[in-house]
Amino acid sequence: MRPPFKVYRQLLFAGLLFPSLALSDPLVFTFSGIGSGTLGGEEFTDSTFTFTFFSSTDDLSTPALYPHDITTPEGTTAKFTIDGVASGYFAGDQAVFVNESEDDVGIWVYAPPDFLTLGNYAFATYNLKTNIGPIGGTASALSEILPVSVANGPGTEPLSLTSVLQSSLTFQAGAGSADGSGGSGGTGPATVPEPSSLLMLGGGLGCLLVMKVCRKPAR
Questions:
Q1: Is 76 inside a domain boundary?
Q2: Residues 44-70: pLDDT tens digits?
């Protein structure tokens, strides 16, 4: 007895499902430089900082009010380290954006002013989905305040950058863990399978399942 058409349809759907699930790639975005500002009311001067954001290609979008921006979601998972000062996680509406029309990337809260921006002509054709950097450019710290959760601290504290040493700020993006728990760990790109390879694997598995059913002898 030949299997009913419903079985073929389900197996073909499974073969198509695998590639669709493989299209979401985790991303890590890292801003690093030397800057001055305040954390919890305490000032720091010319301190080395690193801000690392974790997202994925599926989470990128263009806000209706800002049609030239491509951004990660509000509240994107992000951690920070300010040498000699503190480390921990951002605890607000922070996100990473790129504005191709203005040739810059940065950290914002879905409304102006931005927390930090970096301008470079390379960002005119960048959409946050591919590896880039480390790359420098024109830096701007706009004194926007973001709440952060300091490691071993009692709660959240306000963090503000008032200035950034121009030659120090760099931006880097690559594949990694989408939640900061593994992969690159926020220190740089990690190796993950290419989407095309995952597509081929998913399609191949679906075809093998169909062939197995078709070759099964009738009772």
A1: yes
A2: 999 999 999 999 999 999 999 999 999
